[in-house]
Each structure stands twice: as structure tokens, then as C-alpha cells.
Amino acid sequence: MEKTWILIANAHRARVLEQHGSHKLLTELDGFVYPKARATPKGDISGDAGKGHGRTAHHGTQFEPHTEPQDKERLEFARELAGYLNEAANSQTFNELNLIATSPMLGTLRPLLNHAASAMLKRAVPTDLTIYQDRDLKERVELALASSEGQVH
Question: Phi and psi for 70 in degrees, rounded to 5?
């Protein structure tokens, strides 16, 4: 039986839905929540302190490129989601994959999909449906997938 997985995600929340064959019934399989950046206690500057001495231990400085905290969080969350999807794709748990996520999350997540998951990817729709539930969710998923119909991603 044909099983389609639909990942709905943004940088902080994701849900995996399953659709069987021609039935339009959506079943939620799993949910993920990524907590916001862990706050450090006031006055604690440890985090990245100490970086800048480079490999030579001289007093020169060597800095990493600046990356916004939300970009790092999104990448970490995308890795978690991709790991889940990659494992399921390798086990052939689903036949088709659709991603419905914010543009930044799509851009971060897609390169992390392995060959098996990428081969099953049919649509990638840039929109955020994470706040919707039940009937509203079903209708918006159908609209999102229909709006991208015929577009091979």
C-alpha cells in the first residue's frame, strides 16, 4: 500500500503525518519540538569564551564566521528531522515524501536528506502550517500540495 509522509515544520516545531493510498485521511505519526536557545545564567560568559587563540596557541586571533543563533538552532533541528526521515526512507517506511515548511527550514533541511529520502521527495512547499490542527490542517495541507502540483522539486 502506498504511504505518503508529509513533514510540516518550522524552526521550532515539526510534525510527521501519514497518508495512505488515495485516502485523504491524515494520521499524525510523530511530533518534534525544538526548544529556543538555552539561556545562560546572567553574567555567565562561558559559551564560546576562549575561542580566538587558534591552533598555534599564540596570542593572535582566529575567529569563526558569524552565524546567528537562530541559524545554528535551525540547523541542529533540521539535522534531527533529517535523521528521522533518512532512517525511515532507508527502511522503506514510506513511498513518497512531501515537505511543507518555512523557506529557511526547507533550505536547511533538503541538503541533509540522504539519497533514499531525496529520491522519495515529491514536493517541497514553502509555507508554515505548524499552527493548524484537525480539519484546518487537512484542508491547508491539501491546498499546499495542490498549489505545488506538477512542480518537481
Answer: -65, -30
